[in-house]
Task: structure prediction
Amino acid sequence: MLSELLLTEIARLSLQGKLPLHRQLYEALRRAILDGKLAAGERLPSSRELTQDLNLSRNTVVAALSQLAVEGYLVSHVGSGTFVNDNVPKAAARRPSAQHGHGMKLSRRGQALATSFCATQLEIQPFTPGIADFSAFPVALWQRLQNKHWRMTYPDMLDYSYSGGYAPLRRSVADYLRVFRSVPLEVEQVIITSGTQQSMDLCAQLLADHNDTVWLEDPAYWGAVKAFMATGLKLHPVAVDQHGIAPQARDEAAPPRLIYVTPSHQYPTGAVMSLARRHQILSLAKQHKAWILEDDYDSEFRFSGPPISSLAGLDTDERVLYMGSFSKVLYPGLKLGYLVVPKGLVAAFKQAHYDLNRPGQMPLQAALAEFIEMGHFASALRRARQSYAERRRCLLAALQPCLGQHAQITGAEQGLHLCLRLPGVVDDKALAERIARLGLTVRALSAYCLERKDAKGLVIGYGYATLADIERCGPLLARAVSETLERLNKPA
Ligand SMILES: Cc1ncc(COP(=O)(O)O)c(C=O)c1O
Result:
């Protein structure tokens, strides 16, 4: 029984083609334990038996069992065998709840923050949106640059950074933004942060007070939702249409202090904000004396259609704060991004950033500055663009059979994901779960929705999936969608 369960799970995991065998067995066992299929205290077959039943090598089995033992899922008792640890939390118990044991009660805000928005458990598999293929990152080169900067480092570089970040890095960012995003800026306006999350946090802390209103796109990027929730702002969802955020008269009844937008490729629908809408948002911001937070998270990857300049580039009233990140082109764990603030806010932002966050990591920033100066960033970007363009083409081709009147693609001109829009009657969460059972991660569009009930579909990433993954798994995805649509058409 156990071996059947494990073999099914391993077959599912192997569809991804990325995990080595011992890791697949580890995952299969870990899931069986967390789902309660292997009960606490239950005795496992010996490694010899598992080797035979699963037709795996002994080394593979031993490596998986050892890892599970190290992580506390299994315990061995000499002479009597290996058992599931009595203290492993069950999947349900791992979900955050209001009551964390004796007297450990989260605040209401804490409960909201600790509740998963829509991230799935096993993130790294084909079609997970929001993930770039950082396996292509030139690790050896990066290591050489890091070593060099650590060798050359002087005491000031080990201190907190007061000036908004390492000057040559800020210069490189300013040059890039002037040329490629048409942002007219001085170097002093660039502040290096630990990514967009921190940039949003700083803006919310400094530009809005508790209970002020932030307009958010509906559906929305969950990272932004959490950042604004954490700062005690009132979230006001504004529905997105094919031209991006689309404020109506009723929205103006909740006047915004902040307007958070992803204009070049709305996350997650992929809508590109039209020029008319850009002017509308800028003039609304002016009218309400609000600030616009422009999250330009994947603007580096544009595959078709005319280039789009930034909102910051159109702003004549110093109302836009522009946020960018190195997470997509380099790797997310780098945790470096940048925030461009209007000149009048530079001193206040630097001071508050210093006091709130104690920024640092100057040797890392120096290595990144050199990486950019030497042209490695440009070539990483060129390679990434080429590779994502191929993946995108391949995914579009794979999805072709399920497209039609009831299934349309939006947002495929740019970025690392696209959105497959489905009719409002489709249970997109059930469909995403069905697809998850094939070993693929897509997200239901409705899982990103704050208020609206009409937006259904699948958010599908092609950043992480290799061409081979897409060729193998794309048809499975398309078939699952077609079957769901066929079922809708059948009379009950
Ligand atoms: C909409 C959006 N903004 C920003 C980011 C990048 O955030 P960070 O710089 O915090 O890694 C992401 C990454 O997934 C994103 O999807």
In short: Residues 91-99 have pLDDT under 50 and may be disordered.
